[in-house]
Amino acid sequence: MSQLPTDPRNAHVAACADGARLALRNNGSSIRYAALARLAATDGEGSVEFMARDVLDRAAAVGRDVELADVHGIFRHGGPNPGADLTELAVLRQRVDLPPSYLEFLTCCDGWAGLDGQTDMFPIAELLDGPATERAWVLVEAYDEGSGWQFGFSRDRYLVIGAAESSLSVVLLDLLSAPRVCWLTQGGVENFPTLDALMTTATEDQLETLAALQADPWLGIADDDGRTH
How far is residue 157's CA from residue 148's CA, in Å, rounded to a whole number? Predict the structure, then answer.
């Protein structure tokens, strides 16, 4: 997986990229993937949502295009990992009752680096015993406390399944309501009925980033001498 740059200049670039990402998401044109396919299996208790593989394939393809366009390494890249180890997946399922869409996601890819150019979807090893999960919970609980606990992000109800390293971006899976995903960012909390809906939105963000990088590979970021590229 690619790692975030750590030298001072690249740290500055990464911080500016966070702002650029937020601006793109809030003000960029809406590029909808109209061909989103959602598989539904119906049994006696109703409809169960599954992750559509073409949603994952499209996200991966767009991510590769963004990585090629990001010649200055402003954003985080890496893409999907191989599918989960079945033994690890069985251990996770013993701990948590996971919705089918998330099970399918882990079966296809055990984690994803830079899903939207900054946010990582965690592999099972991180979900079970990883420090990044705890760091994400510290951010989530501080955010919820600052809002007067209006969101009710409790650890017995939600599972943190992804987060960014350098900015406020945390993905939570609601384990009690039939399946729902929350994405907490600097812009607020966005709710999705399914995981593939979140994946589609992340792909839209990446498409807008791709267009911006093609127009200006530096995204208007100034260098250490104050010159804007």
Answer: 18
Cα distances (Å, whole numbers) of residue 103 to 26, 36, 47: 31, 19, 16
* Structure tokens that stand for 22 in this block: 């937020």
173, 158 in Cβ contact below 8 A? yes
- Secondary structure element (H or E) that encloses residue 39, with its range: strand 39-43
- 101 has a pLDDT exceeding 90: no
Residue 117: count of CB within 10 angstroms of its CB = 27
Orientation of helix 195-215 relative to helix 53-69, angle to 10°: 20
**How far is Cα 7 from Cα 13, in angstroms, rounded to an integer?**
10
207 has a pLDDT exceeding 60:
yes
pLDDT at residue 228, rounded to an integer = 56
The DSSP secondary-structure symbol of 159 reads: E
SS3 222: strand
Q: How confident is the model at residue 170 (pLDDT cuts 50, 70, 90)?
A: very high
Instruction: Report the C-alpha gap between 94 and 106 in whole angstroms.
Output: 15
